[in-house]
Structures are given as C-alpha cells and as structure tokens.
Amino acid sequence: MSVVGKQMTRSPSLDKENANKILGKRRYDHDGSIWDDKPMGKNGTPNQALRIKISGAINDSGYSYGKAAKMYGVSKSYAYKWGRIGCARNALNTRFRDVCKADIAFRSLSNRPNRIREWVDEDTKGRIMDLRIRFPFMGSAKIRASLGISHACSTIDRILRNSGLLKPGKSRRKDKTYGSFERDSSFDMVQIDYKSWKNGVHTMFVLDDSSRAILGYSVSDRQSADETISLLRDTFEFWRIRPRQILSDHGTEFYSVRGGKGRSKLSQWCREMDIELIHGRVRHPQTQGKIERSHRSAVEEISHFGPINTLNMFRDTMSKWVEFYNMDRPHQALGYDVPMNVLLERMERNDLDSFLEV
Q1: How far apart are CA 131 and CA 123, in angstroms?
Q2: d(CA 223, CA 217)
C-alpha cells in the first residue's frame, strides 16, 4: 500500500546538534530488545518495522503526527517519538547517517540496568549494623574505612536505610562553594577554643591544624586566660614541640577587649615563647572551622563513651573519647585515615630542631 497524501508545511529541519541529542545512543550499533518483534498497530506489524513506516509517512510523505497515528492504529505520542527520531536521523550528514542506519535508529534500547546492585553477605551486613548501633554518628564512608571493606557507600547506606538505622540527611547548597585551608606540616599552627556545656562544664581543645589531632584538652568548671596558658604549657611540654602559630577567636580568654591586640595575658605569654598569636575574624567561626567541628563531634559522640553527670565523670569520658578520636575514628578530611597517623607522618615535614626546647 503506497502512502499518498497532501504535502504539509512542517516545522523547520533539525540541525546536527539537536539531531544528535534526540538520537542519543541510537547513533551507534546496539542489539535492540525483544520489543522490536512485538506485533503493534492495526495489522500487527512488528514494532521496529512499524516505526520505520510511521517515520516515512511523517518525514517523507508529509503526514501529520495525528494522521499517521490514526492510519497505523497507534497513539499520537508513539507517532511523535518515532517521527522525530526519523527526522533527526535525516538531519545528520552522509557519513553519520550511514553509521546510524535505519534499522539501528529504530531499534529499542535495552532496559538492562548499567549497574547491578552490589551483593553483600549476611555477615558483612551484621558487622555494618553492629558498628552503626555502637557508633550512630558514623556515616557509610567511615564505616567502610573502619571495617576495611570495599563495598560502595551507597550500598552501605541502603543496608542502613533498610534496617532503619539511617535518617535522611541535610543536603548541601548547590550554589555555595565549600573549601578549607590547612597547614602542610604538623605543629605549624594549632587552634584553640572553649566549648561550654549545659551542665556548667567548659572544655578546651588544642587542635593541630594540619592533622586535626587533639594535642591537649581540659575539662573544668571555669574558663580563663590562666587555664588557657596552663593547658598550652602542659601540651607543649608533653609533645616537646612549640608551634609557630596559635589561632583563636576574640574570646576574653584570648584577646584583651579593653587593651586591644597584644595586651592580653595569652599574648604576652606567646611573645615570651616566641609564638605568633593570630585571631580569626570577628563573628566568623568558619575561620576556626576545624576546632568548631571537633566540638560538634564531641557533643554528638561523647555520650556513647560514658556518663557526664559530674565533673570527674566528664573527665573520664572525655579521655576515652579523645583517645577514640585520635586513634580509631576515621576522618573524612584526611582520606579516612585517623588523625594520629597523619600527625606523626606530617611531623617529619617540619624542621623541629628549634622547637624541641619548650
């Protein structure tokens, strides 16, 4: 049966760029699927042959999509899809049109998934869930690093989600650029800051900027410049290393509000120790982001290491958490290594001969 019809004014021809977008994977050789032989339309024509006929009626004979659909007994969306694919193929130049032959362009794309869901044995699933129950603050990447398994993070997330151990997380803003700075060698700069807890306890960390290791900490019922200097002195004597710089905010323990820069007790002590004291921008905690994040980790995780009801209990529990943080807890910013390993490795990058006398 020949197709005869009045020539119609159709939309402008497609350019090569849009034609390639419409064709997509159909430009290259592929095997199709069992749907190509399925009877379709009024006369039960095989699917692939019917697509070629509809495309010819639309692109060669000028039929509208609706008329072609009615003629062959298919939906308008079916006629539109394969009419557009035929139009896109005709828009290609001769070389690419020969590659994208008619039988290839009108084959079905296989719905076989590109990626098969990863299989995990029951023993590994149990280890993943046990670690998550023990440390609920650990994400999939840290669980993978701790257990030494090679499964994808998405697979671990699926296991945790199916077992009710994973809640939807907050999504990061797509229009915001995230970045950080860090020193190349350990003890080049340390960050210090206080954290006040609800039970009237104040903790202070001395954090190595390069390795994120907690070099020293204090748990007290007060915070002052004297407490700060005492902790720094004990920390540097323990490690037998004096850092080049100390970074802090503008807290009254670190900065003299009335006297200004260089007038605080800490500033005077740093001058005596030949250490440069620098301060972050006012009301900009992101400058001390590493130590702020360590405080947040302590708040989220410390309850899993013991009670914090009294000051002595708090000190014992904090000691356990700091050991875990430094020695066992994988750190995302360190490639899921632990801070103490990175601290010892990066100490070798620094010239420490002048730092050994504190």
Answers
A1: 12
A2: 12
SS3 242: coil
Distance CA 147, CA 226 (A): 43
**Is the pLDDT at 90 greater than 90, yes or no?**
no
What distance in Å separates the CA atoms of residue 344 and residue 290, rounded to the nearest whole number?
19
Q: Dihedral sign for Cα 304, 310, 316, 319, please.
A: positive
- Asked if residue 2 has pLDDT above 50, the reply is no
Strand arrangement, sheet containing 276-279:
214-220, 202-208, 189-196, 245-248, 276-279
Asked whether 212 and 333 are in contact (CB, 8 A), the reply is yes
Q: How far apart are CA 192 and CA 297, in angstroms?
A: 16
Q: Is the pTM of this model over 0.70?
A: no
pLDDT digits (tens, 9 = 90+) for 102-159: 577 888 877 776 677 788 999 999 999 999 999 999 999 999 999 999 999 999 999 9
Give the Cα separation of 25 and 18 in Å (integer): 14
Residue 185 is encoded by which pair of tokens?
Answer: 């060698």
DSSP secondary structure string for all residues of 143-177? HHHHHT----HHHHHHHHHHTT--PPPPPPPTT--
Residue 108 DSSP one-character state:
P
| 233 DSSP 8-state letter | H
Q: Which amino acid is at 278?
A: I
Name every residue whose Cβ is closer than 8 Å to that of residue 187 and which is 6 or more positions away in sequence: 208, 210, 239, 241, 242, 243, 244, 347, 350, 352, 355
Q: List Cα–Cα distances, 63 to 40, 75, 249, in angstroms.
A: 20, 15, 74
